[in-house]
Amino acid sequence: MVFLPYVPTPYPDEVLCSVLTRFVVHNGESVFRKISNSVAHLSPNLSIYQASPPHPAVVAFITDQMGLPGNEVTDRLTTSQFFRVFNTAHKRPLNLETAGYGTRSGRLRSLGFIPCNHQPAVRFCPSCLDEDFKKYGEPYLHRIHQMQPALTCTVHEEWLRISCPKCKMLVVPINRMVLRPMPIVCECGADLRSLPVRKSPVSSAFKRLSKFCADSIFSKNSLWSHAQVKSAASEALGLSPHDFSTGYIKSLIKVYGKPISISPHKFVIAPPSSDCHLRLNLDLGRFKAEDFASLFTAAGLTFDESALLISKNRTVGIHIKQRSPKYVYGLKHAEEVLLNFSKAYPGEVATKFQRSHPRLYWLLRIHHPDSIKRWCPKLKTLPPIESDRKKLGRLLKKNGDFKKIFASASRPLFRAIIRDQNWLISTAKLSPSDFTAPHSNRSPNLHQQKSLPPKI
């Protein structure tokens, strides 16, 4: 059993990594090494400031000593709830369970950070540093400051900082030294509590965005779908579903300012007088919590108002576009498709119809040739069945690859599927489920359907 001289009590809105930092500062590095060795069997000679983020077993041991169960640690000391609110609306939901924190990015997230290559250091508010030092005798990191879209302090309405404005060095980098204490004086000698840049004006949009993020971590879990959130955001911004995919970008730029850089998937907005940037996705399929928060804030909604609007769209769900099957093998359907082609491509109906719907084309050629002759009077006579059998038999004997026949002899094969199925199955030694029609005669797909078309 490891003796613990000091067990920290979390300060208001303190992030987990800050609690662990104070644990190490007051107990000493040797105590933390002994815990790591006894609980997680890590080398006691490895410096904690050069190791990966603390092992989950080590974190669980320390928080147990603090009297905090795992779920309470996640809710009170991390930013996971911000992810969890919109997690079901992600196309690729994050693994937010503590047991799943096996990777370094997962451990950083469990310590209260959003794992991001573009967030190189922890964020802090100069006024909060001053107040915390006066009230508690030491500074600590606030979890609300560590959420990626939050660029301002919700209490003092000042820009958050990651670097010293005098020497431009990062104050507490997020690298392997995640347990580095938060200083009040930079290495260059500048007092981080009295930064001259802190009095610069802050846009109301960024204040509202930080407040949105702060309110989200106190909310209950939601089960919103991507379609629900998208529909609610479209309604909030006053955009139609058709215009939303491009209109939301204009709305974001209008509210937050012009981006300083644009990539195929992201754009970056850098507010004046702030060394923190707002990075948002351009692709709706890649949207995450920070993107959804930025959308609703741009529409002028608070988190509670956004949650209410999304809940009203609960009936939207995931919309699956209903399409009539491309290949419904019946004369009636074939004639309907041919009629549509006659309206869309007058003058080249037969050619377009054959290339796009080869099986329907040959179905009409074999069983109702007059409908094709209406658009193509000089229609040639169909080859006899024996002629098709001879050609297909030669190809099957040559390579035996049924897929290649669609490329080299698609026409006789389509005709055989429609009028000579029994011979084709017995000759090729296939079952009815072994071959189906491709989407077109250019791109075969022999395993999409499970049965042959019905005989007519």
Structure description:
- With 456 residues, the protein is mainly α.
- Strands 1-2-3 form a 3-stranded antiparallel beta sheet.
- Strand 1 and strand 2 form a beta hairpin.
- Helix 8 (204-216) packs across helix 11 and helix 13 (331-344) packs across helix 14 (349-356).
- Among the domains are: 222-312, no CATH class; 331-373.
- Mean pLDDT is 78; it is low at 315-328 and 435-456.
- It is built from 20 helices and 3 strands.
- It has helices at 16-27, 29-39, 56-65, 70-77, 80-87, 104-110, 126-136, 204-216, 226-237, 241-256, 289-298, 303-312, 331-344, 349-356, 358-367, 369-373, 385-398, 402-408, 410-419, 421-428; strands at residues 261-262, 266-269, 278-281.
- The radius of gyration is 33 Å and the shape is elongated.
Question: Could you estimate the helical fraction of the residues in percent?
Answer: 40-55%
- How do the strands of the widest beta sheet line up side by side? 1-2-3
Helix and strand content put the structural class at mainly alpha
Global morphology: elongated
Question: How would a crystallographer describe the biggest sheet?
Answer: 3 strands, antiparallel
Instruction: Report, as a whole number of angstroms, the end-to-end distance.
Output: 82 Å
The Rg value, from CA coordinates, equals: 33 Å
Percentage of β-strand residues: under 5%
Unreliable segments of 5+ consecutive residues: 315-328, 435-456
Number of helical segments? Answer: 20
Q: What keywords describe this structure?
A:
456 residues; mainly alpha; three-stranded antiparallel β-sheet
